[in-house]
Amino acid sequence: MKKRLTTVALLCIAMCTLTGSRAVAQKLDFGDQGDGTYKNPVLMADYSDPDVIRVGNKFYMVASDFHFMGMQVLESTDLVNWKIISQVFSRLDYPGWNTNSHYGGGSWAPSIRYHDGKFWVYFCTIDEGLFMSNATDPHGPWTPLWCVKRIPKWEDPCPFWDDDGQAYLGHSVHRAGPIILHKMSADGKYLLDEGDTIYKGPVAEGTKFMKRNGWYYLNIPEGGVEKGWQTCLRARNIYGPYEKRIVLEQGSTDVNGPHQGAVVDDEKGNWWFVHFQSLPVIGRVVHLEPARWADDWLSIGVDRDHNGIGEPVKQWQKPNKTATPHLPQTDDDFDHSLGLQWQWCHNPHDNYWNLSERKGWLTLRAEPADSLKSSHNMLTQKIMGYKNVAITCLDTRHVGGASAGLLCTGKKFIGAGVSNGCLYMEIGGNRTVMGKVRPGLLWLKLDIDVSANKFQYAYSTDGKRFKKLGLPFSMQTGYWKGVRVGLYCYGTSGKAQFDYFRYKILR
Question: Which of 59, 229, 295, 491 has its CA 20 to 30 A from that of 467?
């Protein structure tokens, strides 16, 4: 148990707690390099379709979470080091969300804005509609989700309040385009018209509005996730007509599809572009590019071939060199509340889990399901880094006929756990028994090598000596999300109790 820390438990702590995030104990091959520079990606984790704003001396980010509940809000002082500070919502009260029938649905490409003393978040779900929530404090509480419009197959919304107080809402439609603009009520709750198409382009999506020097700017990704680029459009009227420039492309770099993100300035007047890159296994990771303005046109990255279009940078000077290196939260001792890094798959069933039944332990009660994919008690978080290790300690004495353990999910659902006193692995709903264990504490570990796409389970009965469990396996992204790791319990009876979760980033 964590109250009697084992050698392995100590070794599995790669970072120490720092203001709710994880202080970096060693230089990693991404993010803050500890010498005043950063290396892309700044976040080697699946924060797809990121949007970022600055309020005062702090930056705030949201990203797509799809069928995982919560929509995390992250905070930073330098656009490089981030911590999770809140979750916008906890459930979607619509048909199918109490069962696992909406994989790939949920929150798509949100926008975050600051207006009238409030933080505003807008997002679309592919089946249900356009939603809004706001908060006076980004740490929460956030208002209950407001359905601005009940309509399917909208995506990537962005609000904009003009200097005269008129509010607008821009969005694209499923399959990416065109870009449609609506007038909106000042309180952000209602669309006032059917909308006008203001731009058509090749896979145009990711609507982001801003205004500068009397110009309206529409910054959008085009061309698709893996082969696309970033486009900047400008006009003197928000309805257009718009002039167009491509401002970021892959060029000679290995950063595929550099687009979909946010243009933001810092307190010193420097400009930056936050965007994603789509990678195998881990998903869409976050990059940071220097940006600048010339003749009221945006320029991003470095124009290496002098064709007038920027390319991504690998390493650059940090916006704020005094910021302490840290990463979003990963570890959890389950003492008082679930860490903000955890997300339920679909709506949580709160009567099947608690932190009160056994102090300092997470209790997951068995809930009927026929496989991991259909299991509701599936609590996961993003994997992070190129090479890492996840470990948990499970008390098996009350598991009984339930199935409980450590989960890896992407396109496939693969679990290592215990049921009826037997160790097993589950792959795609098929289970293989690996041996028997006595009732008591069982440590489960997952070694992750993203670069090699190699995953390996192991187990221990003393927390010191681990044996491999099954063969190494590979993973794929799935349902628009990168690979994740987590905990689970399903069945008709029994319960699982987890003492802690540790995540060690090696590279």
Answer: 491
